Structure formats: structure tokens, C-alpha cells
Amino acid sequence: MNVHARNILGSSFLAICLSLSFVAVQAATIFGSSSRGSSPASIYSIDTVTGEATLIGTGIGLIDTTSDPNKVSAIALDPISGAYYAIWGSFLTGAQLITIDLDTGLGTVVGPLVGAGFDASDVLCFCGSDGLVFGTDGTLYASGWNGGFTDGGSFLTLDKSTGAVLSAVATEIHPGSDPMFPISVAISGLARAPDGTLWVSRGNNGAGLIHTIDPDDGSFMTTLELIPSDAVISDLVFGEGGGLYGSAPRNTGMLVTIDTDTGAVANVGAFGGAAKIAGLASVAVEVPIETCADPGGCNPTQNLNIEIPPSIPIPPGTIFTQTVASRDDPRPGLRTCGTDTLVVFFDDPEISDLIIPPGICGDPFIVVTTNTDLEVLGDTIIMTNEPDAFFGVDAKICQPSIPDGMDPQNEDEVVWMSTDGAFQDDGFANTTTFECGSSRGRSRGFSHNVIGMSINFSLDWDADPDAVRRAFVDMGHSKHHRLIRAVKLSKHALPYRKWKRLVAISVFANLVYHWHWYEYSNYLLTRLLGKVENLTFDTDDGYNHAGNITTRADNLRYFTDKYVIGLED
């Protein structure tokens, strides 16, 4: 996956200078971590069609000085930050929580698993952890063995910022253990289903069985008997389609699928290269779309709340799949904000290009890619931006009005690119903020939401505030032209007279904006929105004309009020 910068000259794009390498996250990919084999303590991408594991990084950059090989026994995606965490350690080194850079495979130590009656920090403790998973609310869970639960397993809650064990409970008693010396079950793998249920696998200590677990007390809520009954599953992960995958360690290691209704285990393919894959992790978060239709919506990645209007029909079983990725914007360092376009996913055939215009800049930024089969043809989805979930105290501010003397280029903007756009705008992202920190748009097929960027013309507010004001006014002109084009494209979807009235209002709103009658321009946009709301658009072409016009007019009205009128006050 490459990031390219482009320079706009007139209407053409000229490719320039930069190509920064990223891991290509394909639609049919999961990640794996290795314990032993040809490349211990390494990170792989795994093709869910063939099972083939491709090495991303070797040895994770951390050194185990004992004779026992390095292990990365588990890996998990944080739905809040999009970061990957893992368990690093071995039989003689205890267990430490680390983060993994999926671009390079390199690891950074967070801290040892110690606290709340569990201690895996001692190199001679003969203890460790083999499972790791995040709950839908961002809680980090892990499995443990020994470390305070002698000869037995435990279920842990961890502090992801330190690795500290916040709580520890013994897991369910092993069915074959001596009543005089009961042993709790050691868990080898953890996975979260799309509905939030936590599943566990048991590796060699529970062949042929996987379970769902109660995170509060460590008890097994259900047991699924696998077919064949001697199947050994090291770790589990739910893929983008909701199917359950497992890593089978026998022989050279195999990716398998598991039917959660029947327990049938089917081979996908060998990992290859003598890789011993111990941990599995998803690249995406899934939620049933009907949960987003509830009041308040849903929040799959804990940073972008989704609200589905009641007017949008939701076919049974339809899901949202969201992938979170952190990106670096090279333009601030090159001082080309305001002049160069940034193109992300340029050479990835599985993901639509994301084209970020020159005036939108930020480093780093987050891309939340949404994939769904939901057809939105007559309304708009509301997505509310939560930048502090990613960036904490470093999140860009977003205030309803701009305080006196504050550079408006420093505010967080919501940037949206939807594939449900006109061909002239294909892949082109726009600022779609319609109130502070939220956006409206369409989501069908791929769409991208960008968090952590701001409008940046590379102009010095303190030295020349008038130049900044003019740049915002010019951006408003561009938004007006795109709105007019969106209205004109709806010609065949409306009766001619009603369509002509929309064109007249949008053109007149642009004209009075040009005359600097900004308040009146916004009044006309309000009239336009009212008329669109009361019209029924023909959707035979599969295009969401109502949503497109509403999105642009909403954003333009907000933009004008805040960045044009607001900067003149």
C-alpha cells in the first residue's frame, strides 16, 4: 500500500515525489503471530482464501536472552485506537504486553502482566499467557496460566497502558482434574464475535472443544464439540464475513474454519514456510447494522458513532465492517499543505482510492474504512467523530465557534469519501462537517472517514489573517460549485419543474455568496434543504441524489456560518 502526493493544476492530477510503504491490508486478510518454527516471535499477514502466511517482520526487534525461543503467543486489534497489542514471552520469561507496528512487525514493550493476584513477571515463574482479545467496549482481556493460579488457568483483565493485571479469576475447572487437586482450564486462544461474545480455545489441553466464556467469572457459558474430535486449535479469530477461523498447530500449521453451529472444522491451507502461528487477529471490526438503528446508534471502533435513520430499510443480516488504520501525512514535513493532494490506497485493488484535497492536512491521521452492502438511496447516515478516542489530549480541538485570535486552521475536520458519489468525484474526499465533530454522508460499498486532520492552507494566521479568510472563502466557492453539480446530476430523478427549482436555488445561493451576502446564501441553502426533504427522488440508477445534495448543502451551510461569517465577526 502506497501513499502518493499529487499536485493539482487546473483539473488534472500530476503525480509527484513521494511513495511511503505500508502493509497492504486486503479484504481477505488476517494477522498472525508466531511462537516457534522458522521465524519465532514474528508477525505475518495470512490470506484467508489460501491460508498462506506472509512474513511482515522477524523477531519483533525484542531480544529474549534465555535458551527458550522468543514467542508472540497472541495478538489483538484494539477497536478504540486501531493499534495491535500482543503477548511476548515464553515458558522461562513470563509474559509482557507489547504493541506491534504492523508496517514493520517491530514490537514495543508496554509492561509485564502483574497485579490483582497474578504475576507473570518472574523469569522463573513457569507461567505466562497465550490469549489476548479486546471487548467491544475496549476492555483488554487475556488468558493466564500459573502466575498465582498454581497448575491452572485464569482469565485476566489488563490495563493496556501498563500491562498491569486489573482483575484475575480462575477459569472453569478442568473436567478431568482430580477432585482433591482441581485444576482450572488453561486457555490458549481468545476471539470476539461480531455480537461481542467472547470465544476461547484450549489448544492441547482441550482437543475437540471450544467455548464461550463469561468475562466476569471465567465460567464457560457454552461448549462446542468440534468435528473431528481430536482437532487442536491454538487461537481463534472472526473474519470480515463473520466466519470463525482457527490456527491448527499440528504438522507445519494450518488455517482452518470452524462452523459455530455444527463444530465442523475445515482446512483452508497450510501457513507454509514452517511458520508456527500461535496467535490470530482480525483487521476489522464488525457489527450488525440493525444495532445502529437503535436510538444513539452504534460505535464499532469506539471513535466513530453511526446513526441509521429509520427511513433506511435494513435487510436482515446486513453488517458494517470497519477497518482502522493510522497514517502519516508527508505534506506537513514538506511544507506542501495547501498545494498537494494526498492519495491513499493508490495501488491496492481491494480498497477504493482516498484522495485528500490540498487544503486538508494532518499528521498523523486515522482512516476508518467502512464496507457494507447496505443501500442508502434516499437519506443520509450520520457519523459523529470522536478524535480524542484516538489522540487523547493531542486531539485537535473542535469548538462550535472560533474564539477571537484563534487560528481556524487548527481545528479538527471530518473528511468523508464515499464511493456513492458522482464519477467526477470518484475517490475525492471532502470536508463534510455539518456540526462540530460530525458528518453526514452515504455509505455503500467502501467509504472512508478521516479523523485528525484540519483545514490547512499553509498560511500564517498571525502574520496575514486576511489571506486565511480569503482561502476559506475560496473553499466555499468550490463547495458551492460541487453542490450545483450534485443538483444538476439529479435531473432524471425528479420532475422537470421541481428539479429546475432546485437548480435555481443552488445557483442563486452561489451568486449571492459571490456578492458576499453570506447570511442570505445560507438562508437559500436552508430553503434548498427543506425542498429536498419533501421530495421523492427516483432511485432507479442506484444513486443517492437526496443524500448527496443534503450532505453538501449541510456542510456548506455550516462551513459558511463558521469559517466565512465567523471569521468576519
Brief write-up:
This protein is α+β, with helices and mostly antiparallel strands and 569 residues long. The chain contains six helices and 37 strands. The longest helix is centred in the C-terminal third of the chain and has 25 residues, at 465-489.
Provide a descriptive summary of the structure in words.
Helices cover 16% and strands 36% of the residues. With 569 residues, the chain is α+β, with helices and mostly antiparallel strands. Among the domains are: 29-282, Tachylectin-2, Chain A (5 Propeller); 462-569, no CATH class. Strand 3 (29-37) and strand 4 form a beta hairpin.
Please tag this protein with its features:
single chain, alpha+beta, Tachylectin-2, Chain A, 36% strand
Which regions contain 5 or more consecutive residues with pLDDT less than 50? 1-28, 65-69
- Which architecture of the domain at 29-282 per CATH? 5 Propeller
Beta-strand share of residues: 35-45%
Structural class: alpha+beta
Q: Overall pLDDT, averaged?
A: 81
Give the CATH superfamily of the domain at 29-282.
Glycosyl hydrolase domain, family 43
- Number of helical segments with 4 or more residues: 6
The overall strand count is 37
Enter the CATH topology name of the domain at 29-282.
Tachylectin-2, Chain A
Radius of gyration, taken over Cα atoms and rounded to an integer in Å: 26 Å
Largest beta-sheet details: 7 strands, antiparallel
User: Cα distance, first to last residue?
Assistant: 44 Å
Shape: elongated
Topology:
Elements: E1 2-9, E2 12-21, E3 29-37, E4 43-47, E5 53-57, E6 72-77, E7 84-88, E8 96-100, E9 107-112, E10 114-115, E11 118-119, E12 132-134, E13 140-146, E14 149-158, E15 165-170, E16 189-192, E17 198-201, E18 209-213, E19 220-225, E20 235-238, E21 244-248, E22 254-258, E23 265-270, E24 275-281, E25 285-288, E26 304-307, E27 319-327, H1 331-334, E28 340-344, E29 354-356, E30 360-361, E31 365-372, E32 381-385, H2 387-391, E33 412-418, E34 430-431, E35 433-435, E36 438-441, E37 445-455, H3 465-489, H4 496-514, H5 518-533, H6 545-568
Antiparallel strand pairs: 1-2, 1-28, 3-4, 3-24, 4-5, 6-7, 7-8, 8-9, 10-11, 12-13, 13-14, 14-15, 16-17, 17-18, 18-19, 20-21, 21-22, 22-23, 25-27, 26-32, 27-31, 28-29, 30-37, 31-37, 32-36, 33-34, 33-37, 35-36
Helix pairs in contact: 3-4, 3-6, 4-5, 5-6
